[in-house]
Amino acid sequence: MNSHRRLERFQERHPDIEVRIDAADELLDLRHGQADIGIRYGKGNYPGLHVTPLIGGAYHAVVSPRLLQKRGGLDDISKLQNFALVHTDWRGSRDAVPNWSMWLQAAGIRHPHAENGHLFSNEMMAIEAAISELGIALVSRANVEEDLAAGRLVSVLDNHRMKQADFRYFLVRSPVSNDPVNVDILHAWICAEAGVAEG
Q1: Which of 16, 36, 104, 157 is most exposed by smallest CB count within 10 Å?
Q2: Which CATH number fits domain 3-56+167-194: 3.40.190.10, 3.40.50.720, 3.50.50.60, 3.10.290.10?
Q3: Confidence class for position 1, pLDDT limits 50, 70, 90
């Protein structure tokens, strides 16, 4: 279901709660009141915050089916070098999110241009680049479900997928809030939408 529709349902149920969403890549300091709740992707080590695991964070290599056809497919891993790699320039710790270097190392693959390719400042831009046939992107499965279902992208190299048990999405919140009742309501709603027990 579309996330905007989910938020509309929340607002219909709780019209007095004002929700402001900031989708910036920079981490906000929840401990000092920059936000009440956050959704972070990583390994769950967020000192001083209440942390609730939300959903798994599987990353997949995705490519436009048109580009895949133009380059003669990718039935053999050696053909990966025929494709440009689309990178996301995650701010902060380089190993906080799966990246091509990690993926290639985990798969035991040497790519002559592993550090080269197209670099984008956020994952949504990297997804658009893959749709636009600029190369293969390594992105969160949760963010490309609709594109895969619509045929704009296809998942490739799934048998070489990196083990990512440590990476997932987490709901985080400060133990102190200026509006604890409303924060509790929003926290409970997010957990219910994700189908997880509150942490």
Answers
A1: 16
A2: 3.40.190.10
A3: very low
Does the pTM exceed 0.85?
Answer: no
Distance of CA 75 to the CA centre of its chain: 26
Strand-pair partners of 172: 38, 51
Topology given in CATH for the domain delimited by 59-160: D-Maltodextrin-Binding Protein; domain 2 (3.40.190)
Q: Exposure pattern of 17-31 as b/e (b: 16+ CB <10 Å)?
A: eeeeeeeeeebeebe
Beta strands in the chain (DSSP E): 37-42, 50-56, 59-63, 85-88, 118-120, 136-140, 154-156, 168-173
Strands 59-63 and 85-88: unpaired
Average pLDDT, whole number, for the chain?
82
